[in-house]
Amino acid sequence: MRALHTAATGMKAQELTVEVISNNIANMRTTGFKRVRAEFQDLLYDNQRRAGTQNSQQGNILPVGIAIGTGVKAAATSRIMSQGNVTATEKDYDIAIRGEGFFRIQMPDGRTAYTRDGSFELNDQGQLVTVDGYLVDPGITIPNNATSVTISQAGIVQVTLPGQTATQTVGTLQLSRFVNKAGLESIGDNLFVETPASGQPTTGVPAALGMGTLLQKNLEQSNVTAVSEISDMIAAQRAYEMNARIISAADQMLQSTSQIMK
C-alpha cells in the first residue's frame, strides 16, 4: 500500500524539522548565531488520469485528472540571516555589527572566513584575534602600553598612550557582504566561508557600500526566538504523530484485506 511509504516520508521530514529546531534552541546563547529553517518539497505524482487529455470514450477534454502524491522530501535547510539583539558587555574588544556585513577572519590554512561574532581578544603580540586565536583581517595591533582603546562606528581603531592627550589610529576594521548571504557555508566556531551560491564578497569599511556600523562594548546575540521555536517543535511533533497514525491505519487495512483473503 502506497500510504505506508508516503507516511514514512512525512515522519522522516518531521524528524529533520525537530533536529533543526533542537540545534537552534541549543544555540540560543551563541553569539551571532543565525537560526536555520527546514524546507520541504512534495515528491513525484502518480498520474493515473492526466488533466487536459482526451477522454477516449467521448472525445472530451478532461478538466481534472487523478494524481496521487508519493510523499515529501527535504529541499533545504536555509539560514535566516536577520539581525539579532545587541547587548552591552562593557568589554573593549567586544564589537557588534548593526546592519549588513561580516568580520573577516584569517584562517591558518590561508582561507578567509567570515563571522558575526565580534567577541575578540588580544594575543601575546597585541593582535586582535578571535577566541580561537584566528587573526582578524585586516590585522589590528594594539600597543601593550595603551591606556584606552576606542573603536568608532566606522571601524576606526584608536588608542591613547601614556603621556599623550591625542589619540593615535592603529588601523581600521573592514566588513564583507554577500549577494546571497544565506548561501554561505557554516564550518562551525561561528565561522562561514563563501561558496558559489553566496557569490564573491564585497569588502569595505563600516557605514560604506551598504555595510552596517560597529558598536564597541556590545555583542550581537542569536536571532533564535524561543517561543517560535517551541511552537514549531509542537507542530512538528503533531505532524509526526499524524503520519504515524496513517501508517497504523494502513496496516489495519492491510490486515483486514489479508483476513478476507484467508
UniProtKB/TrEMBL annotation:
Domain Flagellar hook protein FlgE/F/G-like D1 positions: 96-159
Keywords carried by this UniProt record: Bacterial flagellum, Cell projection, Cilium, Flagellum
GO biological process, one term: bacterial-type flagellum-dependent swarming motility
Flagellar basal body rod protein N-terminal domain sequence ranges: 4-34
Limits of the Flagellar basal-body/hook protein C-terminal domain: 216-260
Location in or out of the cell: Bacterial flagellum basal body
InterPro entries to which the protein is assigned, alphabetical: Flag_bb_rod_N, Flagellar_basal_body_rod_CS, Flagellar_FlgE/F/G, Flg_bb/hook_C_dom, FlgE/F/G-like, FlgG_G_neg, LlgE_F_G-like_D1
Family, similarity comment: Belongs to the flagella basal body rod proteins family.
Official protein name in the record: Flagellar basal-body rod protein FlgG
Organism of this sequence: Phreatobacter aquaticus
Gene coding for it: flgG
